[in-house]
């Protein structure tokens, strides 16, 4: 449903953007507020995130990541950019000054770090028990709620939450976080 809505956003459908927002804003807000540590500023940044989603929806590649992973990456990068921007003291701009380039593609070293992080995460995920791994993938990468997962996997909600908690603890230990 989310991937279909993002495809419609890429085609310029504003109603689909509302659907994407309704399905993901809670999770993306959590990502942004964790980085910003300021709820009011995080709300502003979240608006910027969805503006970027509107502009970049056509760039989404399902071969590279799930929709929620792609959206979380945009949210994370936008929040980090906002922190950097907030930390800078703006200098007065001269009339003849050139505007900053708007290239938002990550630098090669950033891509390499992400690739290494992804490989480590993949190895750590493979070490988890199957029920933990599946629950975490569905919750964090596919964006399903605990209730939706409980229904889909046909297990009690408490069991599902235990699987996710134990899986996250295992990932934390494996990743050394």
UniProtKB/TrEMBL annotation:
InterPro entries: RNA_pol_sigma-70-like (IPR039425), RNA_pol_sigma-70_dom (IPR014284), RNA_pol_sigma70_ECF_CS (IPR000838), RNA_pol_sigma70_r2 (IPR007627), RNA_pol_sigma70_r4_t2 (IPR013249), RNA_pol_sigma_r2 (IPR013325), RNA_pol_sigma_r3/r4-like (IPR013324), WH-like_DNA-bd_sf (IPR036388). Residues 119-168 form the RNA polymerase sigma factor 70 region 4 type domain. Belongs to the sigma-70 factor family. ECF subfamily. SUPFAM superfamilies: Sigma2 domain of RNA polymerase sigma factors, Sigma3 and sigma4 domains of RNA polymerase sigma factors. Keywords: DNA-binding, Sigma factor, Transcription, Transcription regulation. NCBIfam families: sigma70-ECF. It comes from Alteriqipengyuania halimionae. This is RNA polymerase sigma factor.
């Amino acid at each position: 449903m989310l991937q279909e809505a993002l495809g419609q956003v890429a085609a310029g459908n504003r109603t689909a953007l509302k659907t994407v927002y309704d399905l993901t804003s809670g999770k993306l807000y959590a990502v942004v507020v964790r980085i910003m540590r300021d709820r009011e500023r995080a709300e502003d940044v979240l608006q910027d995130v969805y503006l970027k989603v509107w502009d970049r929806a056509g760039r989404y590649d399902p071969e590279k990541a799930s929709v929620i992973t792609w959206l979380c990456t945009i949210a994370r990068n936008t929040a980090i950019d906002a922190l950097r921007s907030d930390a800078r003291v703006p200098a007065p701009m001269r009339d003849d000054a050139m505007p900053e380039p708007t290239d938002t593609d990550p630098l090669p070293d950033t891509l390499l770090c992400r690739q290494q992080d992804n490989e480590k995460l993949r190895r750590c995920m493979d070490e988890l028990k199957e029920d933990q791994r599946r629950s975490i993938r569905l919750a964090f990468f596919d964006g399903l709620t605990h209730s939706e997962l409980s229904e889909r996997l046909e297990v009690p909600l408490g069991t599902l939450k235990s699987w996710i908690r134990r899986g996250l603890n295992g990932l934390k230990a494996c990743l050394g976080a």
